[in-house]
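Our platform keeps sequence and structure together, in a single record for each protein. Because each token names a local backbone shape, the row as a whole describes the fold. One such record is reproduced below, unchanged from the form in which we store it:
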Amino acid sequence: MAYQNLMNNYFNPNSVYNEEDFRSRFRMRRHVFKRLLHDVQHVNLYFRQKLDKAGHLGLSPHQKITIALRMLAYASPVDAMDDTYGMSESTGLDNLTEFCQAVVQLYKEEYLRQPNQADLKWFFSQS
């Protein structure tokens, strides 16, 4: 049910929330989320939906990435993810770790570099 709500609210055609709402809640545009989802799924098998040991479908890639982003963007405690998304505390921590490792692997060269002098000048002019 949590998966269906997530999809109906944010990702299905005619979703409950529009692009502005999505950007406000996810801190990114929907197309950026979709790119991130695609990229992360291709470098880390953890983010593909699988059957659990009982033969039930596990959490979807949308859920896993949404949970990691919510934890990072809002400093949400991992136990809050259990109430909202049905992800246990230990799985939530594993999920966040896998997500961070995948993002570093994917985007390290392009986005996660040491700041240069121009970056530092801009940064300190903003504060």
Q: What stands out?
A: The helical segments are 2-11, 19-26, 30-43, 61-74, 78-85, 89-111, 117-126.
